[in-house]
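assembly run, all chains below
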Amino acid sequence: MDYYVVIPAAGQGKRMNAGMNKLFIPLNQIPVIIHTLNVFEQDEHCKGVILAVNENEVNLFIELIRKYHIKNVLKIVNGGKERQNSVYNGLKAVPDEDAIVLIHDGARPFIKQPIIHKLVNSASRNEGAIVAVPMKDTIKAVQNNIVEKTVERSSLWSVQTPQAFRLSVILDAHQKAEDDQFLGTDDSSLVERLGKKVHIVLGDYENIKLTTPEDLIYGEAILAKYKKGR
Ligand code: CTP
Ligand code: MG
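ok done. output:
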C-alpha cells in the first residue's frame, strides 16, 4: 500500500555536540539524512517525501538531494521551534487527505522496508500505528532520589518512528494540540489524547535515533554489518 512520509530534519543536534545539524554528519562517508532518504527513495510504495528543514539550511539540503540523486522529495518546508511544529508544517504539505502518512525522524537512518510495510498496513486498518520495541531495562519511578515503585516491564514499550496515520486524522490531532497548546513527545500522543486507538507494530532494536556521540559508533557498526551482508 502506498504512503507519503514527512521527515522532520530541522533540529540543531545539541546533544550530539557536533557544532552542526547532526543530519549532515557522515556515516560511512554519506550524510545521515541521505541514509534516511535512501530508504524511502528505494521503496516503490513511497509516493513522496516532505522534508522540514531550517530556513538557513534549505540550500544545503537541496545540494545533498541533487548530489545523491534523491528524486522523490516533493517539497521542502520550513521547520519550527519544536519538532512538533516542524512535523505539522510538513503534514500541511501532503497532497492527499485520504493518504496514509508516515512521520519519520531524519535522525533514524536504519529503518527497514519490511517494518515500514507492516506499519502502513496496520495504519490503514486502524486509527494509527507506531513502531516500537519491548523495553530492555527495568524502569523505576523515582521521587527525590528514592524509588517509589518498579514499573511492570511487560507492559512497557520503547517507541520509535515511523508513526503512521491517515492524513486527516493526524492533521486534526496537530491542529487540536496547537489550539490547546499541548506539546507532546511524539505524534502518536496527539492522536491518543483524542481517545483514538493507536496500534503497535514490532520494530527492531537497530532503528536507533542518532542522539548522542556514542550513537555514531553504534551506527557505523550497523553499517559495517550490512556491508558484510549480515
Ligand atoms: N527536529 C525538527 N525540528 C525541531 C527539532 C527537531 O525537525 N525543531 C527533528 C530533528 O532534525 C530530528 C528529529 O526531529 O530528525 C528528532 O529530534 P532530535 O533527535 O531531538 O534532534 P535534534 O532536535 O536535532 O537534537 P537535540 O534535541 O539534541 O538538539
Ligand atoms: Mg530535539
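Residues 11, 83 surround magnesium ion (ligand 2) (CB under 6 Å).

The CA atoms of residues 30 and 207 lie 18 Å apart.

not gonna interpret more than that til we talk
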